[in-house]
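pinging the channel bc i need a second pair of eyes. not urgent but kinda urgent?? the chain im working w is below, pasted from the shared doc
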Amino acid sequence: MNERARRTVPADPAAAPADPEAIAASGRLVARILEHIEAGGGWIPFDQFMRHALYEPGLGYYAAKPAKIGAHGDFVTAPELSPLFARALAAQVAQALLELPPRVLEFGAGSGALASELIAQLGRLGVELESYAIVEVSADLKTQQQARLRDRRIRWLDAPPERFEGVIIANEVLDVMPVKLFVGRGGSMLERGVQARGGGLSMAERPAGDELLEAVKAIEADAGPLPDGYVSEVGLMARAWTATLGHWLHRGLALLIDYGFPRSEYYHPQRAMGTLMCHFRHRAHADPLWLPGLNDITAHVDFTAMAQAARSAGLQVLGYTSQARFLLDCGLLELLGEAPGGPNTAAALRLLSEAEMGELLKVLAVGRGVRGPLRGFASGDRSHRLL
């Protein structure tokens, strides 16, 4: 997350003050979190705090804050940056649908930009979809999607179906799933969490429980011993979510697109402060306790853990590469040639640049009953790095 490109301006949060109404809303969320802390005996683990900050009904960032995505929001995702992203992605979806039922299921569809352009491009490629469904936890974003996609035949779901065959897309979904924080001090492993202090919130540490200890032990077995004072995250919820795909994805392809690394890079000794980052009005900062409910809170994805979770659930790892390599293999440059121009060229550079989205975002393909090779991984598959 320290390398994160979709929100590009590191800053002191105080340099971007919120309006009084928003500050009042954040205060109500803090009061609710303080209630949870009291009920938890004076302390809650960070993943619980992150869940409240992002998803608390009526108060959390994804539950209540308007204008999250785009120029007037807090961040911009690849589908918002350029329609070229969805058009290139459509090439991989179309290939997969040659042998799958023509169904697409998207998680966390943002403003609906990806769905709108993906459906249009699939139509240009001669793919007639049987269904397109969206699973969205944010009521505000669901409303935006419905307004944008009102002329499309789309279903909105509150949860994944019990059984699915087709293509699944999750673009920047895993990085907003709550994570546990840990730090090693003096030979002991501690879990970081949140406590009440002076009527507000502060970070505090407790001895790590068995689940977190086991997770860190597995990390060190793969990446080597972590230095004293090393702070990082474990995405147990993202692992569990990926594993559940194996229970209901009967036949199909899932494309997981997000910021992240293989485990050996994620837990490199030089990444000693982890990847947790917050974003407010296109400014990045590292204080998740500042105005909860008004900030996006994210952490990079350990793609080795996602691959392990998928395999444990009976799915195959079908490809892993950078966003740049994936989009190039899917014909982005050819698409750019069909629609040349300054804005398109500038957006394509951001999508492909190693310093921005091109290298920081990765694409992991998992599935069942899908024959390879997949087009998006034809020339740059890095699946071997996930071992």
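so The domain at 9-372 is CATH 3.40.50.12710 (Rossmann fold). and The chain has one domain: 9-372. — does that match what u expected or am i reading it wrong
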